[in-house]
Amino acid sequence: MSVTYYKRYRMDASVRRRFDRPRLPLGYRLVGWSDELLLDHAEAKHAAFRDEVDSRVFGCLADEDGCLRLMEEIAGKPGFMPQATWLAERADATGVAEPVGTIQAVRVTPRYGSIQNVGVAPSARGLGLGAALVTAALVAFREAGLLRATLEVTATNATAVRMYESLGFVRVKTMYRAVEAQYA
Question: Rounded to two decimals, what is the model's pTM?
Fold first, then answer.
């Protein structure tokens, strides 16, 4: 088996500053966490990551069952922050909602929150939904008394890196994740 190394950044931001509530495009909304939305979060996560490099870095993102297991794991963590976990939905003309984005958050220390798996489906990218999801999580972190937020991003995802930087995140560490390639 061969090994591929994926460069990733750990990024960090203060949540003390005031964030403007993001404006969403017409027909889109952010929905707060509820247990009933677990499957929708998994569906949005799969749509966002299945064809991206992150599905090679983290194999669970490549299939629906893996995304569901990951969502169950995150929601079951002791520090899970439902108030900082959001689903982006697009409603069609009849009002039927389709999950198109997701973000989850976990309190890792009394002062730090960690953003998990920000993802927007390809059909909804470029509309500001990623920034809206992150901003909503950062506002919730501040309201919960946290001081800082951290996240990790694959370095080749330049669009995400720029978006995080525009929201005040700075790179604090570069890491490499080893992934074994399997050949049949």
Answer: 0.93
